[in-house]
Write a sequence for this structure.
């Protein structure tokens, strides 16, 4: 029988093994520009390993998922971090897994607020972006040459996610 | 007499000497994730020169400017690019200058749509972020250690900007 996954709100602590959370963390605030701007400093760090040592900015425009949604595969990028920051002010879902001898374990699913982003560490198993409700744009910072920086794994039996209640 | 600056809409061509525009350029689109996502690929590239070779993600939360607004100074970051991507879906202004023997020339002012960002090349003179209408958040990718990566110049006579008409 197919297993439904719990959806948890995103917190920095819960996400720490997988990446950084990009949000206005009061502990990281400093005033700049004569006090007109709050700079939330160094919330995350883009990382690239190996050739080409080139990070790029991209925009991902994603169709919303339909529910119940089936998580059948996970992917990872061995040579770079990958960040997702919402540009459309909409909630979205991420799913991540611990690595278990080269394969993703059971996914953990997090609901992100419209003002939270994430930066996956290199080589962290994750599901492709899951937009909710409407077409949504995300700023993505990752390494160029995505095809050479990509592994995927298909679960023998997919997991399911019910529609999240905001 | 103080000079008013013209406000132009942002275009890739007009901005080319100063940096890249981060927007959903149809020429850079490829479908990914089984066709559920449009990836607008490699719209810009974060660049860092010198130590610390470390790029960081930040959020800038900016007060809106009041008009007529006085442009009295410009700044530049010799050792890294700096990107601004709007997270609040609001218009904003950028001002940039050619370098004239180590000083900024007369600024050019661009009005950005709510879905356009920019990535200044290293060492490009620009005015600090000018949010419009309400407090606005921006994702900023730049180099760590901002104080050591900073030059500023104060104009003997400031320029003025009238309130932009969207």
């Amino acid at each position: 029988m197919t297993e439904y996954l719990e959806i948890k709100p995103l917190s920095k602590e819960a996400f720490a093994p997988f990446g950084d959370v990009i949000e206005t963390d009061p502990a990281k605030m400093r005033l700049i520009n004569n006090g007109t701007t709050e700079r939330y400093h160094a919330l995350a760090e883009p990382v690239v390993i190996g050739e080409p040592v080139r990070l790029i900015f991209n925009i991902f425009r994603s169709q919303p998922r339909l529910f119940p949604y089936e998580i059948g595969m996970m992917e990872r990028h061995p040579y770079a971090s990958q960040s997702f920051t919402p540009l459309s002010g909409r909630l979205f879902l991420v799913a991540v897994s611990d690595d278990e001898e080269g394969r993703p374990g059971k996914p953990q699913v997090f609901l992100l607020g419209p003002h939270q982003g994430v930066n996956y560490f290199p080589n962290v198993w994750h599901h492709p972006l899951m937009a909710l409700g409407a077409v949504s744009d995300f700023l993505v910072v990752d390494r160029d040459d995505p095809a050479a920086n990509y592994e995927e794994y298909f679960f023998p039996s997919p997991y399911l996610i019910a529609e999240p209640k905001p």
Q: What stands out?
A: Chain A has one domain: 3-43+56-161. Helices of chain A lie at 12-15.
